[in-house]
Amino acid sequence: QVHLVESGGGLVQAGGSLRLSCAASGRTFRNNPMGWSRQAPGKEREFVAAISRSGSSTRYADSVKGRFTISRDNAKNTVYLQMASLKPEDTAVYYCAADRRTHNAVVVTTNAYDYWGQGTQVTVSS
Q1: What is d(CA 58, CA 126) in angstroms, rounded to the nearest whole number?
Q2: Contact criterion met (CB below 8 Å) for 124 and 86
Q3: CB neighbours of 1 closer than 8 A, spacing ≥ 6?
Q4: Over the stretch 56-66, which tens digit does the pLDDT of each residue have?
């Protein structure tokens, strides 16, 4: 059974930083694109960042570009999201996701992902 488990969320003041981790188990995702999305209360889930299977290509939502960095360690079957200069509007549940297809493109559409974690809460206070 496939599991994606996020960790690293929490409460942080505006301007602070957090590092989210997503550990996969049940199968390897080293050949699969992965990404992060988020969902704020009352809003739809939105794309945040994506990374190709090799890690050579990344994409970001305009709202986080220059502040967030996605990376992956295929040896550890783990993807990360380093978040800096956090703003109150970044408050949301953050989800890790994986594409079942084995290609080296980035996936920027949330509904294209097949596997999802349970999410981790990030709260940014002003």
Answers
A1: 29
A2: yes
A3: 26
A4: 999 999 999 99
